[in-house]
Amino acid sequence: MRYLFFALPLVLLAALVGVFAFSIDRDAGLVRSVLIDKPAPQFTLAAVEGMDVPGFDNAALLGEPSLVNVFASWCIPCRDEHPLLESLKAETAIRMYGINHSDAPENARAFLAELGNPYDAIGADRDRRVSIDWGVYGVPETFLVDANGVIVYKHVGPLTPRAIETELKPAIAALRS
């Protein structure tokens, strides 16, 4: 019995190390959202204070395909991803919405003033409630929504040129055909 008392923590530690070792090389972009093929959650987001871009709600996502990008000024990968979003907007003319995640309005304004604003509307999600409803793990995350307001694609982490060319652009084209 005494040996069991000492062996149990070692067995548990070995199991935990095994789980971490198995997961260490996993692609974070492969996280499948339970919201895929489901309507976007009901939400209303006010505009970021001091910006001349409106906030938005789920009704804004109806009528044509839309891209919803969750970002924050304090997010380094968001900064890296941002030029790709601007290029995607210029190349595809897709409606693009931003959910500004847990950010001070002055920081969001400075971020977009410095890097440009590809968004048609930006909602301030200061309390992260809408991000939680969308199933956001962290920023950045990007969703493609069809004309009926149904989420058809999710990308976790910063978009890459490869993901845009091989996944996102074909998905946008399929929604438009």
From TrEMBL:
GO terms for cellular component: outer membrane-bounded periplasmic space. One of its GO terms (molecular function) is disulfide oxidoreductase activity. It holds the Pfam family Redoxin. It is found in: Cell envelope. GO terms for biological process: cytochrome complex assembly. Keywords: Cytochrome c-type biogenesis, Disulfide bond, Redox-active center. Residues 34-177 form the Thioredoxin domain. Its main location: other. It comes from the Bacteria. The keyword Amino-acid biosynthesis does not apply. Belongs to the thioredoxin family. DsbE subfamily. NCBIfam families: dsbE. This is Thiol:disulfide interchange protein. It comes from Devosia elaeis.
